[in-house]
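Reviewer 2 asked us to include a model.

Predict the structure of this chain.
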Amino acid sequence: MRVTISRKAHFNAAHRLHRKDWTFEKNDAVFGKCNNANFHGHNYGLTVSVTGKIDPETGFVLDVKVLADIILEEVEIPFDHKNLNLDVPEFEDLNPTAENIAVVIWNKIRKRIQPDFDLEIVLNETDRNFVTYKGEE
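Predicted model (structure tokens):
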């Protein structure tokens, strides 16, 4: 019997959508106001879901407290109230789009979750815009 557990979290962060190898004009055409040289911010919402078999001894797929601690250590502490472009090493050479942020978060959490569990990340950049990532298919 496989069951999915989920934990919600949030973090606030600034970023700039910008490619260093493009001209100002191309960045402006592709990223528009999200290419603001002074950055802009979001109140990100995050839902982390883990699917696996229920442990017959504990009745848990994964203790939600353990999942909460992983999210705190891998996402909230390193990303919250940070400038993703300047303060988070993973985005030094990676454009911090919602898609790329979701993949980075997935990779950070994946290394802490049992390999036989499935992992899904839903990252809300706004109330209307969100990205889902489940790993390589």
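The longest helix spans residues 64-79. The helical segments are 24-31, 64-79, 84-87, 98-110. We have added this to the supplementary material.
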